[in-house]
Design brief:
The protein is of the alpha+beta class. The protein is built from 5 helices and 4 strands. A hairpin with a 2-residue loop joins strand 1 and strand 2.
Amino acid sequence: MVFISSCLAGGQTLKILFSDINYNQYLIWNNKYIRIDNKPIFYEKYADCGTVYLNDLWFRLDNLRSFEYLKDTGLVSNFLTWSALRLSVPKNKLSSFPKVKFDPMTFKCKSIEFDAY
């Protein structure tokens, strides 16, 4: 099991190094642009629920509907924490998220696509 975890972690590192799109800037947690009280944030309950990227905050829905949607998928949180998290995201990051579906098991390097499946 440790070997598989190591392989997956290594694959993720390669994905970040060779990807045409830098997804690090779209991560919510410990992002230098997303701060509350001038500190980077990390909410373990949200991360455990799969909320990792800006798209996972469901900005295409209003604040209440997005919160209710994630509560239905298993998030245990309160509305004020959810609102503070969404409001901490700079406006310029909302419209710049790439439309490409992120798949950590494939990556491109100089137009050559590598597929780990």
